[in-house]
């Protein structure tokens, strides 16, 4: 198993992966709409099969993780991909990483907080607005919790006080 940087040759596989995971490859969050196959990121693969994928964008010296998916849970794939992006951010001199998730995604909230991310913002009714663009977003999510709000989690990766 290897982690590799996303390349142009991976685009079709990434689109297929997102359709399997999310029914389409467009992610809509309060920061914008993103075609994930066009973003930078890393693939965790075995025998040319994508087992995990992380995508991101950088704006104003903030790296925003747009997606982090692992099709094999509790094997450390998400943690390895996150660590890879954090190291990438440090090498690029990016000071902060942020991730947006929804109010129903309790596993993601737990995962990111264990990795040092803190809730820095709540965006009420953000998902209602996103549904106007992406109609496939369900009304209810994990544990049948209504999906309404976004939570922004952030982590400083380079101390800016030096």
UniProtKB/TrEMBL annotation:
Protein name: N-acetyltransferase
InterPro entries linked: Acyl_CoA_acyltransferase (IPR016181), GNAT_dom (IPR000182)
A Pfam family assignment: Acetyltransf_1
GO MF term list: acyltransferase activity, transferring groups other than amino-acyl groups
Species classification: Bacteria, Bacillati, Bacillota, Bacilli, Lactobacillales
Residue intervals of the N-acetyltransferase domain: 1-138
Species whose genome carries this gene: Lactococcus lactis
SUPFAM superfamilies: Acyl-CoA N-acyltransferases (Nat)
């Amino acid at each position: 198993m290897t982690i590799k940087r996303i390349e142009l040759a991976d685009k079709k596989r990434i689109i297929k992966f997102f359709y399997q995971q999310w029914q389409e490859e467009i992610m809509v969050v309060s920061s914008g709409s993103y075609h994930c196959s066009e973003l930078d990121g890393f693939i965790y693969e075995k025998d040319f099969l994508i087992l995990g994928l992380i995508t991101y964008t950088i704006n104003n010296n903030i790296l925003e993780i747009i997606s982090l998916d692992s099709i094999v849970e509790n094997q450390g794939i998400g943690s390895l991909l996150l660590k890879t992006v954090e190291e990438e951010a440090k090498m690029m001199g990016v000071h902060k990483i942020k991730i947006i998730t929804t109010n129903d995604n309790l596993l993601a909230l737990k995962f990111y907080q264990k990795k040092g991310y803190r809730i820095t913002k709540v965006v009420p009714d953000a998902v209602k607005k996103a549904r106007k663009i992406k109609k496939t977003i369900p009304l209810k999510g994990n544990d049948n919790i209504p999906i309404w709000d976004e939570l922004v989690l952030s982590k400083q990766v380079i101390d800016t006080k030096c």
